[in-house]
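Data availability (excerpt). The following record was deposited with the supplementary files.
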Amino acid sequence: MSKTKTWLLCALLIAACGQPDDAPDKLKIGYVINFMSHEWYQNISKSATTRAAELDVELIVADANLDVAAQISKAENLLAQGVEVLILSPVDAKAMGPIVRQAKAAGTKVITESNPVSEAVSYVGIDNYAGGVKAGEWFASYAAEKGLDPKILIVGFPNFEDCRQRVDGFKDALAASGLTHEIVQEVDGQGLKEKAFKVAQDALTANPQINVIYGINDDSTTGGMAAYKAAGLDEAALTAIGFGFEGTVGQTALTGDTPYAAALAMFPNFVGSALIDAAVQLSRGEQLPPHYETPTIVVTRDNISRFYDTSTEPPFALKVDAVRALMTQ
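Predicted structure:
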């Protein structure tokens, strides 16, 4: 087991015991999310709130709505309220340095989600590059098995380092596999389905030979799929691979009659709980690794029921124990 996975597994077991009954004050945690309108962050927020209630800690959540200035202002407001731990999903990681230093001066510990920030105690979340590698390795094997001649469109979001890493890992895995393939075009869908649709539409108009779409999140992938369909191209010839599997959008696409063949699952509900577990550890004076890693795996129609209860309509309930078991692999 890797060192970071060992840390996270221990944290989950320790935090599950709850806080001492004689704790004089309830722990107060502040969390400034970068974009609550996105399903990923809605699920993280829900699971973080649930976990905070289980551990009897106070969680205050604020939404920056992709506004750097708003994130700084809301973080300063939480510091003024005396939060002991501040969690940030940074809109711009480089712009968060002053807030981290301000928090440290106030005795508040900072952890981040999605992207690391210099001087923060720890980054909680997946290894994005490794996730991209897993997606690329899966596709290389799939393409070889199916005899595909991949002409690939990548729908990315280059403004964010984590999204760039997802693309880099995917491309590096394909190169290492020896699979003959062509990356026809890379476009910026900004992580939003409507924008992904538009840029994919333009790419497909210029390059109708594209038969593979890789998106950095579910909206990027499904936006590309929608553009492919709108262009009147043969959907039976398309293979779509996503990253995130954030909730209803990805789950519906993967379990439906669509070209969505696989997704690198990031398990947002698990990440939300892990953020609170990490914050609780910090409040107890425990040390965290620089990267408090959460698990990922490629999910397909064949293995989705291992991690989700698919007996109902999406959003599916997460099988937490199955995800936790990935930490020992």
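Summary of structural features: Residues 128-146 form the longest helix (19 residues).
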